[in-house]
Structures are given as C-alpha cells and as structure tokens.
Amino acid sequence: MNRERISEILASFSSKRILVIGDLMLDEFLWGKVSRISPEAPVPVVEIVREESFPGGAANVARNLAEFTSHVRIMGVTGQCQHADHLKRLLTKEGINIDSVQSHECYQTIVKTRIIARQQHMVRIDREKKLRLRAEHAALAIREIEALLPEIDAIVVEDYGKGMLAQEFAQEICALANRAGKILAVDPNPHNPLAWRHVSVIKPNRAEAFASAALPFEEPIDPPERDAALLEAGRILSQKWDTDNLLITLGEQGVLLLRRNAPPYHAPTRAREVFDVSGAGDTVIALFTLALSAGASPEEAAEIANHASGVVVGKLGTATVTPAELLGSFEV
Known about the structure:
Elements: H1 3-13, E1 18-22, E2 24-37, E3 44-57, H2 58-66, E4 72-78, H3 82-93, E5 97-103, E6 110-117, E7 120-127, H4 135-148, E8 154-158, H5 167-180, E9 183-187, E10 201-202, H6 206-212, H7 228-241, E11 245-249, E12 255-259, E13 265-267, H8 280-293, H9 298-312, H10 323-329
Parallel strand pairs: 1-4, 1-8, 2-6, 4-5, 8-9, 9-10, 10-11
Antiparallel strand pairs: 2-3, 6-7, 11-12, 12-13
C-alpha cells in the first residue's frame, strides 16, 4: 500500500463512530527495581518506583480507537468501587464516552496488577470474580444498542470470557447489527464458545483458532498460507461462524486473512523489536474495524492492523499506536 492510499484511509478515521462492547478491566503497572533477595523466602524484593494505570480488556480496544477518532463509546459493566471510578476517569480523560457503562454493586470490577522490574514482568495479580450479566442489565444494554445504531458506523465486540457476553446477548447484537447494515467485528474467546453468525470479521489468534475449531494445536509452518492445519482450522471456523472475514493473528508471523472465494492473504509481521505483546490483539481488531469503516478493502485493513500491532509490541505495558507512528511504519 503506497503512502497516498494509507494517508487517504487514515484521513477518514477521525469521522468514524465506533461502539465497543465487552469485558472492562483496569490494568495496573507497578514499576520497580530489584537489589536483593528477601530474607523471608527465596524471592526478589521489588522496590516500587512508579505506578501507572490504563483501561484494559475491551476498554483497551476503545483506547486504541480513541487515538484516531473522538467518536468512541464503550459498553460494559463494573462494580461500584474506587477501581470502577478510576477506570471511568481514565476512559473519560481519553475522550471515550462512558454513558453506556453500567455500574452495579452486584459485580466486581476486574483489576489486573503487573509488577515489572528491570524491564522483566515479575508477576501478575488478578482481582476478579467472573460475572454473569443479569437479564435486566442485558436487556438495558440491548435497548441502548438499538437506540445507538443510527449514530454509529461499526460495533466491536471484545470477549475476554469474564461473563459480559452470553449466547442470547450475542445473538441480539448480531441481529441488530445485521438489520441496520453495520460493520460488526468480534474478538472471540474459546473458553466462552458463542455462536457468532453473519459478522463482518472475527479475529482469533492461532491457539484460539485451533481451540474454537476443536482441533489439536499444531506448530506454525512457513509460509502461513500453506500451513495445512491452520487453513483447515480456518475453513471450519469460516463455516461455523459464517463470517465475511476471518483474521487470524499469528504473532511473529503477522496475520492471515481468510475470505470467501478468495485466496488466503498473509501480511508478515512489521515488528522490529518485541518488548510486550499485551493488548496487541486489541490493537488489531480496533484498527481492522476502523479501516473497514473508512472504506479500506479487507486486505488493506489487514495490512493497517498488522502495522499497528507491529508498533505496539515494541512498547512496554498496555500500549496504543498514534496516527503518526502508524503512518511512519509504512515508510520503514
């Protein structure tokens, strides 16, 4: 893709209106240094020197989108606690509309705390209790989606398997998006197997693709477009989910796009250095959806998403890519 074409697509991003639905989390990072081993147990003592917090889970998808458009709305649930308040403040600070976030005392806000020292991820502490979205809260969300449809260009569903998404809710989302002719992108979770039907794109990673296709995992083969096991998983999933586009992220191999009546399209990785893969999948689904809504072809959208992912894996923590960084990645 030449610079003129990528610039044309990027110029359309700012006007796009995207609704993100899914499991919301607060990502905490504690940065420290290690100079000794604890006398109490054979573990390092980490002296914390800096703390940071970022929107995580589906909220990280919204955060990636907000780098390119100010018309991003997030839908999910939290508890009623200081962590929920902090998460909503962070989202608001980044210009993300939180009017569709429900906060109820019956839920626990998901918090993931990572301790990092000497650029090494030491440990992650999870504070979560898997929620089951109550019927009255799901009904409220569906009514809100229906009301919002005239005002949005695309919906991204990010399933982290924490309980926000169940089959009936998923079916309603698909039905509403299809009736309204809206782009619907889904990042599925094999631990929460849902029957997604008639969606614009579904984006599993390699392991998730094999798991969702009920096939034993097989190691990668180069080139991916000749990886028979991967292609078979893709064939099964394309039929199972009846999707226009199946985008499989492949880590160091980049991404593989499978479409009806078209040969596999492979975009090799653009990462120059890999420091942290946290949230890279969020970046891919965000930028692919945004590019599709801006009129890019699926192949162009795959290239844009792949370049964006190549930028964020070169950063530590739950990172995003800026428009300047994305454009610059096409000039390398």
